[in-house]
Amino acid sequence: MELRKVTKVFGGLTALDNVSFSVQEGEILGLIGPNGAGKSTIVGLTMGALKPNSGDIVFNGETLLNLKPHQVVERGICRTFQVEKPLLNMTVTGNVLIGALLRTPDRAEALEQAKGIIERVRLGHVAHVLAKNLTVQDRKRLELARSLATCPTMLLLDEVMAGLTPLEIDQSLDLLRKLRDEGLTILIIEHVMRAIMNISDRIVVLDYGKRIAEGSPRDIVHDPAVVEAYLGRKGTRSG
Amino acid sequence: MAMNDPAHASWKRYVPLILAAIVILVPLAVPSRYILRTLVNIFFFAALGCAWNIIGGYAGQLSLGHSAFVAMGAYPTALLLLNLNIPPWIGFIPGVVLALIAAYLLGHLVFGLRGPYLALSTLAFAEIVHILLLHFRDQTGGSLGVTIPFGGTSVWKLQFASEQPYYYICLGLLGFCLYVTHRIHNSRMGYYLQAIKENQDAAENLGINLSGNKVKALMISAALTALMGGFYVAYFYYIDPDSVAGSDLSIKILLVAIVGGVGTVWGPVVGACILVALTEISNYLFGSGRAGVSLVIYAIILVIVVLFSPRGLIALLPKGSRSYRSE
Question: Which residue, of A59, A124, A128, B255, has the greatest Cβ tally within 10 A?
């Protein structure tokens, strides 16, 4: 997937300013930046929920700009929501089943797939619990499970590890690595630095809608522009 | 599970069969015309509630304008019968086609809207149909409506002196509506409609075509509603804009589904039994002079149901007889 000079303006606020980068097939690309840097906007634009003011987003040689979200999902891109949006009055199984039904109209087959995915993301113990009764952590897992059920070739993960314990984060990282090794491309947005530095093959840094750095996790932590964006410029703070 | 007791299970299996047998045999055993008419009314509103339930219940897209589709089924049927002598069992077809087209256009127009805006626009839609019926009075008879003369029993024209044939026709139509709902309930579309009802953003991002599914559900719903509009003409011999295109009817249709239980196959049947029975009781107690009392009672019932059993009265029935999904 490739973003080409994407600009998105909300009212007077430029959320994304001429941003270009690409995600290679089979890699995990970390997308980081301070709050309001435009990370989630990129997810919205890719899915077709938002339209950019200029620029293009290309996936497998095809522009995604004229597609609706469900068409983007059909082409193999799926997202999770930063603020979880479970189907509250359906069980965990039901939620994942909805995703699995995209690739097969057969309920029994979809149910089999859903069960497999639920085990994989460690939701087996709450498979028959209504989504509205889940803890925040389990809701995060449900977001991931549901997206996986649509059989994506590329996943857009918007803060799926917020609120997880260190052990749970390690489990999630293991799962994501396995998924990548199976051929899934992953764009991951995360504030848990330990997680994103640990798992990303490459990282893109956004600040105020601009791409300020791109490279391996090791390069990124030493990049002066990144340090400035996160910690402020030396000497600009009094005291 | 306690239900695995074999004697209990085998006994339970026969309950639907016994109920079906009773429903089929009632007209042969009950001579009372009044009771049969009441039952036809129950079937009629259950079928309408069932049709509404597809878009309003399963998909959660509140329509306050379903009487418009009743009118679209009823008026062509009545006018074709009156002017061209085309029997209702053929005459309902143009009405159903009209309803399908209207639902398609309306769906694409209003399904970008959510919540109260959608409800209001469907209300406006029904009001437009109501006004058009009054305006084109040369064709529709305006507020005087259309009266179909009774020309003696005729199977061809679906005119019968006795009540039994109507009973079976309406029962068959209800059966058809239940069958369609049942098919949707167990299909991918059923799951998709439920997902749309729960959260449209999430549904869309799981690959569900929002407008496609909603428009399809509205079209099925509108076609079944128009079909019942055709039956209305055959059964009541008289239509006017207030009775088939008024907001009273729209409200009654959705109350049947909501009181009974939205998003379930049998909920509207339960709702229709309660509401039609209540109408009869209130008409008996208060007389036709205070016909509005039944509406007051509806309102009270609705408040009680929403407060104490928001999933409808069907949620109060024993588990096996409900029709919720297991997931």
Answer: B255
Q: Which residue of B has its CA nearest to A48?
A: B205
**Nearest-10 crossing angle of helices B33-52, B6-29:** 120
* Whether residue A224 sits in one domain with residue A158: yes
pLDDT of B94: 97
Contact partners, residue B120, CB within 8 Å, separation at least 6: B64
Cβ contact B206–A146 (<8 Å): yes
> Rounded to the nearest 10 degrees, how much is the dihedral formed by the CA atoms of B26, B30, B36, B42?
-40
> What does pTM read for this prediction?
0.90
Strands A28-32 and A202-207: parallel
- Is A105 near chain B, with CB under 8 Å? yes
Q: Tell me whether residues B191 and A97 touch, CB distance under 8 A.
A: yes
Q: How far apart are CA B190 and CA B313, in angstroms?
A: 21
Rounded CA gap, B201 and B109, in Å?
Answer: 19
The answer to whether B272 touches B57, Cβ cutoff 8 Å, is no
A157 touches chain B (CB under 8 A): no
CATH of the domain at A200: 3.40.50.300
Q: Is B133 helix (H, G, I), strand (E, B) or coil?
A: helix
Scanning every residue of chain A, which has its alpha carbon at the shortest distance from the alpha carbon of B209?
A70
Range of the domain at A192: 1-76+152-239
Whether ipTM tops 0.85, in short, is yes
pLDDT at A221: 87
Separation of alpha carbons B54 and A197, rounded Å: 49
Cα B327 from Cα B324, distance rounded (Å): 9
